[in-house]
Write a structure and sequence with these properties.
Layout lengths: L2 E5 L2 E3 L5 E8 L7 E7 L6 E7 L5 E3 L7 E6 L4 E6 L8 E8 L7 E2 L3 E5 L2
Parallel strand pairs: 2-11
Antiparallel strand pairs: 1-3, 3-8, 4-5, 4-9, 5-6, 7-8, 9-10, 9-11
């Protein structure tokens, strides 16, 4: 059974860092992209970043450019989201999702909570 498992969320002070992980298992079809989305309370879900499984090309929303870095380890079927200089407005549940292209999620993980607060 295809599964995506996120980890690494938590409580961090403004200006701090966290690294999220998304590990895929059980996929019987080829997926091309892993995306990170987030959803804050009362807000719509938004795309944060994405990475191509094959060539590693990346994309970011302007809200996180220069602060977040997405990377992959294909041997471990894992994608990482390094989040630096975190702001209170980054507080959200972060989800990873596979898809045929950036900003399009087909299979989703359960999410991990990130809270940025002093």
């Amino acid at each position: 059974q295809a599964q995506l498992v996120e980890s690494g969320g938590g409580l961090v002070q403004p200006g701090g860092s966290l690294r999220l992980s998304c590990t895929a298992s059980g996929f019987t079809y080829i997926y091309y992209v892993i995306n990170w989305f987030r959803q804050a309370p009362g807000k719509e879900r938004e795309g944060v970043s994405c990475i191509s499984k094959s060539d590693g090309r990346t994309n970011y929303t302007d809200l996180v450019k220069g602060r977040f870095t997405i990377s992959r380890d294909n041997a471990k079927n894992t994608v990482y989201l390094q989040m630096n200089s975190l702001k209170p407005e980054d507080t959200a549940v972060y989800y990873c999702a596979t898809g045929p292209r950036c900003w399009y999620g087909e299979h989703w993980g359960q999410g991990t909570q990130v809270t940025v607060s002093s």
